[in-house]
Design brief:
This protein is an alpha+beta fold. Among the domains are: about 1-75, no CATH class; about 80-180, Butyryl-CoA Dehydrogenase, subunit A, domain 2 (Beta Barrel), CATH 2.40.110.10; about 360-475, Four Helix Bundle (Hemerythrin (Met), subunit A), CATH 1.20.120. It has helices at about 1-5, 25-40, 45-60, 60-75, 185-220, 235-270, 275-315, 330-335, 345-360, 360-370, 380-400, 405-430, 435-460, 465-475; strands at about 80, 95-100, 105-115, 120-130, 140-145, 150-155, 165-180, 225, 225-230. The strands form 2 sheets. Strands 1, 2, 3, 4, 5, 6 and 7 form a 7-stranded mixed sheet that branches. Helix 5 packs antiparallel against helix 6 (about 235-270) and helix 5 packs parallel to helix 7 (about 275-315).
Length: about 475
């Protein structure tokens, strides 16, 4: 961290007037991948950016001037303080109380749990400020840790040991309201969470890259059966699949960051030049829809990919990988949290399925398909077309089911199909510039098509007994 501070990299995305570097999100995600390749706990740097950016977007001028430079310099740590013992994925159930005194000042009382870097000086706290249940009763508060807040314990975790996870007790802790009352979850926390989800998508690529490098090095050096194990088909196929899925995730990460950069760039343009609102309104709406779909897709896909690559890295090491002598066991432990925190993969599916069902995904596919692909082999374009047809038929059948339960049951399959079709287009883009990338795209698409076919066959089965079977197996009514 001290080296990062000396390099002035702790405020990469903040505006220069707040002592930041004003680096676009696309570049920040690339840097985040490199940092977390060194150690997954360096995601704390991404968290620092997310909190500062939230303040920069929604905080008062006084809050921005006081706290963002502090974060940019890396003088203090920060935390997004959201979850509680009975409010994890369901943040609408938050009960930590925010009370406003006669003097207008706010005090926070209650317990927060599983708070990354909760021992940091600065925090954004989700608390119940209104006498009403649900999301509309929640507001976001800026808090500076003092004697009124205690760290009850630091959790003993499976991985990311360089990142403290805390349980916190607030006892009438002074805090400041951020933005408007009642918008804490529906607007500010959702914006913060989307930023954090992209940071985790970057972390997933970093962990996977580190895992792959360790596995590749070991496979070239370890000799069995008269030669290095990388020459064995079972091993080189595994390594190639790791490399392909890693590069696919990286392409999705960068495309998602590019979309978010475009959306926010146009929003800032309209903010400073209102006369351009009519000109940019349609484009802002388009990229807002795309960002809302791509962000959960990237978080889900990249975190699941990181877990698989880290798992396979241990497999390539064999028994040695199970020991602490090599880094792969650490990467495996660190990867496990990526598809849990900042919203589980299942919640990312919930966030993306609306766009998948409403046509945002197919609109994105149409835009990619309209590009010039004449330099690429025809069979790859036919594979895309075939996968697209299976996807569209699956969506149509789920819609015809007219049941929220059926949609929820098949949501992950539909989101995975849409994600991999989009990723295929992104890899084909890269293939136009590189023969090696063409091999990557071809390998990915061959297996993508098989997975799409399996999902489509399951969804399109006329026998709908699968839901009943699961309920019978689990004794659910």
């Amino acid at each position: 961290w001290d080296m990062m501070k000396k390099a002035e990299l702790t405020g990469m995305t903040f505006a220069r007037k707040y002592e930041g570097l004003n680096i676009p999100l696309t570049i920040m995600t690339m840097c985040g991948e490199i940092f977390t390749r060194g150690d997954a706990s360096f995601l704390n740097l991404g968290l620092q950016q997310d909190i500062g950016e939230t303040l920069e977007r929604f905080g008062s001028d006084e809050q921005k001037a006081r706290y963002i430079p502090m974060l940019a310099r890396g003088d203090e740590g920060s935390a997004m303080i959201l979850t509680e013992p009975d409010a994890g994925s369901d943040l609408q159930a938050v009960t930590l109380k925010a009370t406003q005194g006669a003097d207008g000042k706010w005090l926070l009382s209650g317990v927060k749990r599983f708070i990354t870097n909760g021992c940091g000086k600065i925090g954004l706290v989700l608390a119940r400020s209104e006498d009403r249940e649900g999301a509309r009763g929640l507001s976001l508060f800026l808090y500076e840790r003092d004697k009124h807040t205690k760290i009850r314990r630091v959790e003993e975790k499976l991985g990311i040991h360089g990142s403290p996870t805390c349980e916190m007790q607030f006892d009438n802790s002074p805090a400041e309201l951020v933005g408007e009352r009642g918008r804490g979850l529906t607007k500010y926390t959702m914006w913060l969470m989307n930023s954090a989800r992209l940071s985790v998508a970057s972390q997933g690529v970093g962990i996977a890259e580190a895992s792959f490098r360790e596995a590749y090095k070991y496979a070239t050096e370890r000799e069995q059966f008269g030669g290095p194990i990388i020459k064995l088909p079972a091993v080189y196929e595994m390594l190639a699949d790791m490399r392909v899925s890693l590069e696919a995730a990286r392409s999705l990460l960068y495309e998602t960051a590019r979309i978010v950069d475009l959306k926010e760039g146009m929003e800032r343009m309209v903010e400073h030049h209102p006369e351009r609102n009519d000109e940019l309104k349609a484009e802002i709406k388009k990229y807002t829809r795309l960002a809302a779909m791509f962000t959960p897709m990237a978080k889900a896909y990249n975190s699941e990919m990181a877990n698989k690559v880290a798992y396979d890295a241990i497999q390539i090491h064999g028994g040695t990988g199970f020991m602490k002598d090599f880094n792969v066991e650490r990467h495996y432990r660190d990867a496990r949290i990526t598809n849990i925190y900042e919203g589980t993969t299942q919640l990312q599916v919930v966030a993306a399925i609306g766009a998948v069902m409403s046509g945002t995904a197919t609109a994105a596919m149409d835009e990619y398909a309209s590009e010039d692909w004449s330099a690429l082999p025809a069979h790859l374009l036919k594979a895309e077309e075939k996968a697209r047809m299976m996807f569209e038929k699956s969506v149509m059948l789920v819609k015809e089911g007219s049941s929220e339960e059926v949609t929820a049951f098949h949501a992950r399959r539909l989101v995975e199909m849409a994600t991999e079709i989009i990723v295929s287009w992104l890899l084909l883009r890269d293939a136009r510039r590189s023969a090696r990338k063409l091999a990557v795209a071809e390998t990915f698409m061959e297996k993508m098509l098989a997975r799409a076919m399996a999902h489509a066959t399951y969804i399109q089965s006329e026998d709908a007994c699968f839901m009943k079977n699961y309920k019978d197996i689990l004794n659910l009514e």
